[in-house]
Write a structure and sequence with these properties.
about 230 residues
């Protein structure tokens, strides 16, 4: 989960608000949210249900298990990037789902027949995400309908659920490389949004075209926690 963009020109740190609505308004005013769909999806998910401390600050917050919930502007960036692939029937994989916040936002961006699966390698975070989403009526409905599901799994392997590929994959922790298995699991067309690197990290947006060809684009610098093995019991 990211600490935030390394680009000093960003307007992110000026987007803090006193309420969820104020936070989203500021993110929009500062150009960090440009789509009405993303704006409405984030307005519908109260960050206070997912971030226990200062939820409306545009900064990462600790959530336990040596994990964080990403800064809101990073969630907005991911949602904006994946938006062209979030059609009504889309199947979305959220790797390193953590608190469950972005998974809930993505659930709002697909239709009733869409599917969003959040996976994490720590059972405590899977339990936390379910608990957080259950705090709202809308979240409970998405869980009960099966539109959103949280599972324990190794995100570096993606998830083959036997139902076909994923229209979009979001990765919320820094990988050492853009794992080929994740690209393989994309539908054609499909998009992968993934931070890559160790000391120097960058967001990579990887598109699989309709003909199966793959296009990789290096985007902005970030600081994420690493995508690693689960801690030993």
């Amino acid at each position: 989960m990211p600490n935030g963009p390394a680009n000093p020109k960003t307007m992110a740190w000026m987007s803090t608000g006193s309420t969820n609505a104020a936070l989203i308004k500021n993110l929009t005013s500062n150009g960090l949210i440009t789509s009405e769909r993303v704006k409405n999806a984030m307005l519908a998910v109260d960050r206070a249900h997912y971030a226990p401390f200062a939820p409306y600050h545009d900064s990462p917050q600790t959530i336990g298990f040596s994990a964080t919930i990403s800064a809101p502007h990073m969630h907005a960036s991911a949602a904006e990037s994946l938006l062209p692939y979030l059609h009504p029937n889309a199947r979305i994989l959220d790797i390193g789902s953590g608190s469950g916040y972005l998974t809930a936002v993505l659930g709002n961006l697909v239709g009733p027949s869409g599917k969003v699966v959040g996976i994490d390698h720590i059972q405590g975070l899977v339990d936390l995400a379910n608990k957080n989403m259950s705090k709202s009526k809308e979240g409970r409905e998405m869980l009960e309908s099966g539109k959103v599901t949280f599972l324990k799994a190794d995100g570096r392997l993606g998830l083959d659920d036997g139902q076909g590929g994923w229209d979009a994959i979001h990765v919320g922790a820094a990988a050492k490389e853009a794992h080929k298995v994740l690209v393989d699991q994309l539908t054609a067309p499909g998009r992968l949004f993934i931070p890559v690197g160790e000391d120097m990290q960058y967001i990579w947006v990887i598109d699989k075209k309709e003909d199966g060809s793959v296009v990789r684009k290096k985007s902005f610098g970030v600081r994420y926690v690493p995508l690693t093995d689960a801690p030993k019991d």
